[in-house]
Amino acid sequence: MAKKLVKYFVVDAFTESAFKGNPAAVCLLEYEKDEKWLQAVAAEFNISETCYLTPITTDVTSNPRFRLRWFTPVAEVKLCGHATLAASHTLFSNGLVNSDIIEFDTLSGILTAKKVPESVSNGEAKESFLIELDFPIVPMSEFSVDALSISKALNSTPIIDLKKTTTSGDLFVVFPSGKDVTELNPQFDEILKCPGRGVIVSGVAPPESGFDFYSRFFCPKLGINEDPVCGSAHCALAPYWSKKLGKCDFMAYQASPRSGILDIHLDEQNQRVLLRGKAVTVMEGSILV
C-alpha cells in the first residue's frame, strides 16, 4: 500500500504581500504523528514555525475543531500567533472548513479564529478577508537584573522599562522611541547570554507613522535570531501599551526586515487579545516521508 503523503502549505502571515510578514509551514495530518517526526520536519523547513493540524471529532462544539501544535526548528512552543493565522488562512482559503469560525485545541487551551470580511471600498466587494485570532493575555512581572548586560546585547540602546513575561520568560524591553527599535542592530551572541527565552523590544511609534507602537522579537535560543512578526509577543505588548497610551485598540508594526502589521483589540475584562491580520499562500506541496 502506498504511503500517504502529507500535504503542506507555506503561508506568509500578517501581510498582504508575498515574501513579507512571517512565513509558517502548515502541515495537514489525518492522525497524530510522533514528536521525533514533527521536530524533524520543522528542522527541514527551517523557518520560524512549522505547525501541524489534525481534525478532532467532538460533540462539544458545532464549530470545526483541530489539534494545533507549533514547532520552531529546534523545539515545540506553547503559543504562536503567526502560525495560527497561517493555519486558519489555509483552512479558510482552500475550502477545508464550512464555517467562519475555527477552534484549535492547543497547549495554551482552546483558541479561536474568525473569518472577517473586508469592508466594501468604492462600492466593490473584495474577495480578501481578515482573520481574527482570540488569544489569552500574556502577563508580565517586574524584573530586576543588571540592565547593562541587556543593553550590551542591544547595542547599548537606552532602556526605559524592563519586564519579563510570566508564561515564556521573555525579556520585555522598552526603548525611548520606535526609531530606536527600527535602527537596532542586535548582538545575537550576547542575546544568547541574556536570562529568559527571548527578547521583545518595543517603543512608541512616530506620530506620522499611522501606528501606535513598534516592536521586534529575538529568540536565538529557539533557533530564530529574529522572528519576522510575532503574534504571541503582542499578547504582552497590547496590555502594556494600553496602560501607557490609555487605549484598547492599536495598529502595531513589527519592524523586522520582512515587516508586519497587526490590528489589535485588548479585551481587558476577559483578559483576551484579539489579533487581526491577513496572510498569503506562497507555496504548497507534499511531504514524502
From TrEMBL:
Organism classification: Eukaryota, Viridiplantae, Streptophyta, Embryophyta, Tracheophyta
Active-site residue list: 49
Task: From the Swiss-Prot or TrEMBL record, give the protein name.
Answer: Phenazine biosynthesis PhzC/PhzF protein
Q: Name one GO cellular component term.
A: cytoplasm
An example Gene Ontology molecular-function term: isomerase activity
Stated family? Belongs to the PhzF family.
Arranged from A to Z, the UniProt key words for this protein are: Isomerase
Question: May I ask which residue range the UniProt record assigns to the signal sequence?
Answer: none
Stored InterPro entries = Phenazine_PhzF-like
